[in-house]
């Protein structure tokens, strides 16, 4: 483990502006905490509005250089970035585990998924097709896609690497330049990526990073007329704030916000298979995932068998420091995450839910200084309980009984969120009807996964708008220009 900590000495901790590593103007720093141990593992520069404005100017200066570079050369730089991420994946994964907590194997999976997304957009950038449309009087109408200019990107801590690559790769692919504000909990994954961008030969200023005072940096980005787009992943509350702040300068906005995914198990589903898919999905990143199954609807005829088997499976989930071998799930990110889960569970139990396992913070031995929580199953959950409507973002499985298809569709849609949803059945007619009826941006049918580089990721309702991944991911980073072309004058 000592060797892992030594990796930190090579990780940049400054702001990255115009191709240079710089301190915040006042020399201020913020602590980065290991959530498994409570230790301060680094001090990272704490910038604000002034540094953000400097980064915006650097991105503005780099825009004509990057956007006019030959597309093959730009694609080559993106491919090099992907190659370097893959080459350094083991170290990047350990750095992520130190600041975020997830098990190293999951961190490495995230890093490699991020590399895949960069590689995918390195190819897709050569397919940013326009159109020609026949016009009257021998005119030809050209429809072209052009980059927007400077993009402001704000990212969360739960996927500290792939949320960045998922935004930056389509933005760069379309020819934009970027100012990134990552989460203060996980800045080291972000600075490590900046170092890779630099090594891959990205021109100075094409991507800039400002860590620090979120409201000040957010205001600088949203109020700037130079910044033509805000792309944000995080909570619905902050997404709404940034959307409002962006109105004055009429910029494009993409919001990937909270979720409250239903996970529906019909009576014909294979119980053992579904339980292993549910446990894998729920305890991935300790439930701190916007697409995590959050409300588990079980057909009443299989409820008892399902719940009993689920509880035994959950009791096998191994909690621990993500750096240790054999750990399935790590700590939560912060103290307030524990408080939120405790409150949801206390409220549910008070209103009649049955705590089958877990339901408490883990504090013994190696757990003493971290933010660990016992994997939890709550049975008998109803719509009178907070957990039915609030995103949990933790290792809790609330089990809810249903009687028929119409009832469960109504229950699943009874939320302000609309990001991911899942259901399990072998009945084709039901698959067609339920997938059509779920008011969600993404539906997993007999599958617990919805994030792939080639498929559009995003939500509806209060889960936001805009799509990441897929060829649709480029559309959020381009303007459409119409050129009326007449060959004869
Ligand atoms: P958060 O509190 O909204 O923070 C996200 C980012 O926004 C952080 O970098 C944060 O910085 C920044 N921020 C906060 N206030 C700001 C402001 N006034 N101006 C500019 N930036 C501001 O969310 P989180 O707790 O990090 O992430 C968890 C949430 O993200 C969950 O709701 C989850 O569902 C959602 N999420 C959604 C997706 C998706 O694709 N739909 C993916 C992952 C996560 P500070 O921490 O410094 O405030």
Describe this structure in words.
The chain has 489 residues and is α/β, with parallel strands linked by helices. The chain has two domains: 2-257 and 463-482, 3-Layer(aba) Sandwich (Aldehyde Dehydrogenase, Chain A, domain 1); 261-452, Aldehyde Dehydrogenase, Chain A, domain 2. 39% of the residues lie in helices and 21% in strands. The model has no long low-confidence stretch (mean pLDDT 98). Bound molecules: NADP nicotinamide-adenine-dinucleotide phosphate (NAP).
Quickly give the structural class: alpha/beta
Number of helices: 16
The overall number of domains is 2
CATH topology (fold) name of the largest domain: Aldehyde Dehydrogenase, Chain A, domain 1
Strand arrangement, major sheet: 14-17-18-13-12-19-20
List its salient traits.
single chain; alpha/beta; Aldehyde Dehydrogenase, Chain A, domain 2; seven-stranded mixed sheet; six-stranded mixed sheet; 16 helices; 22 strands; 39% helix; binds NADP nicotinamide-adenine-dinucleotide phosphate
Per-chain topology:
Blueprint (H helix, E strand, L loop, with lengths): L1 H5 L8 E3 L2 E3 L6 E5 L6 E6 L3 H20 L2 H17 L1 H12 L3 H21 L6 E4 L5 E8 L2 E5 L7 H12 L3 E5 L5 H13 L7 E3 L4 H10 L3 E7 L2 H10 L6 E5 L4 E5 L5 H13 L9 E7 L3 H13 L19 H16 L3 E4 L3 E2 L9 E2 L2 E4 L6 H4 L6 E7 L2 H9 L6 E5 L3 H10 L4 E4 L18 E2 L6 H4 L2 E8 L4
Parallel strand pairs: 7-8, 7-10, 8-9, 10-11, 12-13, 12-19, 13-18, 17-18, 19-20
Antiparallel strand pairs: 1-2, 3-4, 5-6, 6-22, 11-21, 14-17, 15-16
Bound molecules: NADP nicotinamide-adenine-dinucleotide phosphate.
NADP nicotinamide-adenine-dinucleotide phosphate binds next to α8 and α9.
């Amino acid at each position: 483990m000592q060797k892992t900590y030594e990796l930190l000495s090579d990780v940049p901790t400054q702001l990255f502006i115009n191709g240079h590593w710089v301190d915040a103007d006042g020399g201020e720093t913020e602590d980065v905490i290991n959530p498994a141990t409570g230790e301060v593992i680094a001090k990272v520069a704490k910038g604000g509005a002034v540094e953000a404005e400097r980064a915006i100017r650097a991105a503005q200066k780099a825009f004509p250089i990057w956007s006019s570079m030959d597309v093959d050369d730009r694609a080559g730089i993106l491919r090099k970035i992907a190659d370097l991420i893959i080459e350094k994946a083991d170290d990047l994964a350990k750095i992520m585990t130190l600041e975020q907590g997830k098990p190293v194997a999951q961190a490495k999976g995230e890093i490699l998924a991020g590399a895949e997304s960069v590689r995918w957009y390195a190819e897709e950038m050569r397919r940013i097709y326009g159109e020609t449309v026949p016009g009257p009087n021998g005119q030809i109408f050209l429809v072209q896609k052009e980059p927007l200019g400077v993009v402001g990107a704000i990212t969360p801590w739960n996927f500290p690497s792939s949320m960045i690559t998922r935004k930056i790769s389509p933005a760069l692919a379309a020819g934009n330049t970027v100012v990134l504000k990552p989460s203060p909990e996980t800045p080291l994954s972000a600075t490590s990526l900046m170092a890779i961008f630099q090594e891959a030969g990205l021109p100075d200023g094409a991507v800039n990073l400002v860590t620090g005072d979120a409201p000040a940096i957010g205001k600088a980005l949203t109020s700037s007329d130079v910044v033509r787009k805000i792309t944000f992943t995080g909570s619905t509350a902050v997404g709404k704030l940034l959307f409002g702040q962006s109105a004055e300068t009429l910029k494009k906005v993409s919001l990937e916000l909270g979720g409250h995914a239903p996970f529906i198990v019909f009576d014909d589903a294979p119980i053992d298979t579904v339980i292993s898919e549910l446990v894998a999905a729920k305890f991935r990143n300790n439930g701190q995932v916007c697409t995590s199954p959050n409300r588990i609807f079980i057909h009443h005829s299989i409820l008892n068998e399902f719940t009993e088997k689920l509880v035994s499976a959950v009791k096998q989930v191994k909690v621990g420091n993500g750096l240790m071998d054999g750990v399935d799930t790590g700590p939560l990110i912060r103290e307030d995450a524990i408080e939120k889960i405790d409150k949801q569970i206390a409220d549910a139990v008070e209103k009649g839910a049955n705590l089958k396992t877990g339901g408490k913070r883990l504090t013994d031995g190696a757990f003493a200084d971290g933010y660990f929580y016992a994997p939890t199953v709550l049975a008998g959950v109803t719509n009178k309980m907070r957990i039915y409507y609030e995103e949990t973002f933790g290792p809790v499985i609330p089990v809810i009984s249903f009687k028929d298809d119409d009832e469960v569709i109504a229950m699943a849609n009874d939320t302000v969120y609309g990001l991911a949803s899942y259901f399990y059945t072998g009945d084709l007619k039901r698959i067609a009807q339920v997938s059509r009826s779920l008011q969600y941006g993404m539906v997993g049918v007999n599958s617990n996964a919805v994030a792939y580089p080639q498929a559009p990721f995003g939500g509806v309702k209060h889960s936001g708008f805009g799509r990441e991944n897929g060829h649709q991911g480029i559309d959020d980073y381009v303007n459409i220009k119409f050129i009326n072309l007449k060959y004869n004058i």
